[in-house]
Amino acid sequence: MLLDLPDEDSLYAALLARDASFDGRAFVGVTSTGVFCRLTCPARKPKRENCVFFDRIGACIDAGYRPCKRCHPMAPAAQADPVIMHLLKALEADPVRVWHERDIIALGLDASTVRRAFKRHFGTTFLDMARQMRLRTAAAELPQGAKVIDAQMVAGYDSPSAFRAAFGRIMGLAPGAFVKDALLRADWIETRLGAMIAVSSASHLHLLEFVERKALPAELRRLHTAAKGSLGFGRFDPTDQIEAEMTAFLRLEQDHFATPIAPHGTPFSQSVWRALRDIPAGETRSYSDLARSMGRPDATRAVARANGANPIAIVVPCHRVLAADGALTGYGGGLWRKQALIELEQGFAARRQES
C-alpha cells in the first residue's frame, strides 16, 4: 500500500490543502467515523491520529470503511460505467442486503463482466464490496443495541461445504485432505461483527479469528503443524461454548468468557494475553500502560508484538489497547471492528457505574 505515494504526514498535508493532484491516487479512511474520502473532500478535516491512507478504493473497503456521502469517492467509476452505477445505487439503497451472483444475473447483468469491472475500478469484486458494506453498516448499529436480522449479518458462507472449500483455500489444501476424527476441528461461527473461524480440541479453544484477518493462514498452518496434521472439520464442546458466550457478549448480556483457552505462544506472550484479559470491558489501556502493569515498563514494543500475535480475538481483548495518544492502532479484524467493540463495551462500563 502507498508504494508510489509520499509518507502519511505528506498525505495529511495534502488532505488539509485539498490537493487535487491526488484524486484517484490516494484516499483517506477516518477511524472515528468509519468513512473513506477523497483528499479533496469538503467535509471538516479529521484529526491526524484518526486518518489512515490507502492507494485504492478496494483497500478502503477491505479495511471496513464506507464511502463518504459528501465527496462520493466511487462516483468517477460509476459515471464511467453504467453497470457500476446501477449496482452502486442498489447497494446504497439497501446496504444490508445479502447479495449473490444469481442476484446480479437476475438484474440482466453478466456476472463475469461485473466482476472484471469492479476489480478494474476498485480492486475488489462487487460481492466482496457488498459484504463489507453490510458488516460495517450493522457494526455501526451495535453500540445502540439495534436488533439486526441474523441473515443480514452472514459473512459469506451459505453452507458447510462453502466453508470447507474456503478453509481449504486458506490452508492450500483440498477439503478432502483434512483428517476425519481430527484432534483439532475447525468450524465457523456467525456473529454480528461477521464470520469467525473457531478451532478447538476436545478440551480447549485454540483459535478464534475473523475470516478476513491477514494472519489467519499462518495461524492455521501453525496449528496444523503443532497437531501433526490432525486438523479437520467439525466441533467440540469449546466451539459451542464460545459461540454461545460470544452471542451473549455482543448482546451486552455478559462481559466475560469462561471457555478454556489452549496455552499457545511463548511464556512472555501468555503473560501479555493474561494482562489483556484483566482489562475490564469498557476500559482501554496504552501499550506502555500494559507493560507497566506487568512490571515490564521497558518492554512496550515486545508487548505490542505479543498483542498483535494474539490468536483468540475478543476473548483475549487486544482491541482494548490504544496508542499512547488514544488513537486507534492496527487490529487484525479491522479498525472499524475495534471501534465498534470499544463503543459496544461502553455499555458494560455504564452498568458498572450505575450499580
From TrEMBL:
Top EC class for this record: transferase
Q: Name the residues that bind Zn(2+).
A: 37, 41, 68, 71
Q: Which UniProt keywords apply?
A: Activator, DNA damage, DNA repair, Metal-binding, Methyltransferase, Transcription, Transcription regulation, Transferase, Zinc
- Co-factor: note: Binds 1 zinc ion per subunit.
Q: State which Enzyme Commission number(s) the record gives.
A: 2.1.1.63
Listed CDD domains? ATase (cd06445)
Which sequence ranges are marked TM in the entry?
A: none
Entry protein name: methylated-DNA--[protein]-cysteine S-methyltransferase
Q: Specify the species.
A: Sulfitobacter aestuariivivens
Q: What are the leading ranks of the lineage?
A: Bacteria, Pseudomonadati, Pseudomonadota, Alphaproteobacteria, Rhodobacterales
